[in-house]
Amino acid sequence: MVSAKAARGGSTIGELRQSGAMKLLFPRPDPALLQAIVINSAGGITGGDSFALTARAEAQAALSLTTQAAERAYRAQPGQVAALRNTLTVDTGATLHWLPQETILYDGCALRRHLTVDLAQDASLLLVEPLVFGRAAMGEALRHAYFRDRIEVNRAGQPLFHDAMTLSGDVTAHLAAPHIAAGAGALATLIYVAPDAEARLPRLRAQLPDSAGASLIGPDLLVARILAADSFDLRQSLVPILGALSGDTLPRSWMT
């Protein structure tokens, strides 16, 4: 569990508790934005694993969370499913950036992932979830995999954006269908909640590749979905977009 609190005109650590393989590092002090890097010292996730992260940006604070590198969902034993639960809270006047690097699904993986975000009425959020369907450089295909993902963003106790996806079996064949992903090997979901969301839309659309789209689905809610051939192409799109939306505070681990 980690929280950021407003202090001395900026943000600092409010509370920190950690155990098991999931650790947090704070790379450098920033007077305006508390940055934390999530490290999975187990090196990945496999069937039977259970990870949970709880983070809070307290009133008027700013918190940015990323990962040290791509997360890996490895082959699981039959009947074993890994669980990953992330719970974020953004209090009044606060800002939270949820910027994990890619989750790579390996053939044979079994993973349930659930992200819940609770926003105060005037809170701001930048969220991205990049996903890679196998290692393209290794010629890997997802012929036997299971992945269930759910994103829930609520504001003042009311649903703001809910999204769910389940992939099972021959995922590569499923994604090859023209009306689903046309063979894309990577996907990202991006959510931006802030008063300037509408003003950001034209520039965001100009930065997107042809295999992506963005919509304003509320006066301050912008959502984009990006399909790409592989993780390299996905990152080529995401880095400039996230840099702009984060106010040029994109964590350094994204640049390596």
TrEMBL record:
PANTHER family: UREASE ACCESSORY PROTEIN D (PTHR33643:SF1)
UniProt keyword tRNA processing present: no
InterPro entries reported for this sequence: UreD (IPR002669)
Primary location: cytoplasm
Role: Required for maturation of urease via the functional incorporation of the urease nickel metallocenter.
Family: Belongs to the UreD family.
Keywords: Chaperone, Cytoplasm, Nickel insertion, Plasmid
Lineage, opening ranks: Bacteria, Pseudomonadati, Pseudomonadota, Alphaproteobacteria, Rhodobacterales
Domain of life from the UniProt record: Bacteria
Subunit structure and binding partners: UreD, UreF and UreG form a complex that acts as a GTP-hydrolysis-dependent molecular chaperone, activating the urease apoprotein by helping to assemble the nickel containing metallocenter of UreC. The UreE protein probably delivers the nickel.
The organism of origin for this protein: Sulfitobacter faviae
Gene name linked to the record: ureD
Cytoplasm recorded as keyword: yes
Subcellular localization(s) per the UniProt record: Cytoplasm
Name of the protein in question: Urease accessory protein UreD
